Amino acid sequence: MISRFNLFVLRANDLTISKQFYETLLDTPFLSEQHPGGPLHYSTTIDGIVFELYPAAKSVSEEKVNASLKPSLGFIVKSLDKLIEKLNIKGIIYKGPSENDWGRSIVVYDPDRYRIELMEEKL
Predict the structure, then answer these.
(1) Which regions of the chain are under pLDDT 70?
(2) 3-state secondary structure of 106
(3) What domain range is 21 assigned to?
(4) Could you read off the pLDDT of 56-65 as tens digits, one per residue?
(5) DSSP state of 56
């Protein structure tokens, strides 16, 4: 039985651009890492969850994977308005904000077109 989630890895076509995007979005630095025999990648830890950005594989089979099978991410943010202001300054395109049963949110796409929903924390 799973007790908690502890690791999320995304494959990025351009590590530098994706690193900058997620550092802006999450307001946290990603550190450079390279394990023995592995590729250079970036990593950060948020609330005990390791979030890593690895280079995308260049194999033909992996490039043909249907985009609809890509994962979506979701994050809770303290202030959606402050985040929207920050995203506008960086030129990041987003959809929303919108209201639903769970709260107020926006959707952004990272440089590799991963969908990210950002929901405002309910007080």
Answers:
(1) 1-3, 58-69, 123
(2) strand
(3) 7-57+67-120
(4) 876 545 545 5
(5) P
Is 2 within the bounds of a domain?
A: no
The strands making up 72-77's β-sheet, listed across from edge to edge, are 72-77, 115-120, 103-109, 94-100
Query: What local confidence, expressed as pLDDT, does residue 65 receive?
Result: 52
Whether the CA torsion 33, 117, 78, 82 is positive or negative: it is positive
Amino acid at 5: F
Amino acid (1-letter code) at residue 121: E
Angstrom CA distances, 47 to 31, 44, 76, stand at: 16, 10, 12
Q: Where are the beta strands (DSSP E) in 1-61?
A: 7-12, 31-33, 41-46, 49-55
- CATH, residue 92: 3.10.180.10
In a domain, 32, yes or no: yes
8-state DSSP, 121 = P
pTM: 0.72
Q: Please state the domain count of the chain.
A: 1
Instruction: Tell me the CA end-to-end span of the chain in Å, nearest whole number.
Output: 31
Note whether residue 1 is domain-resident: no
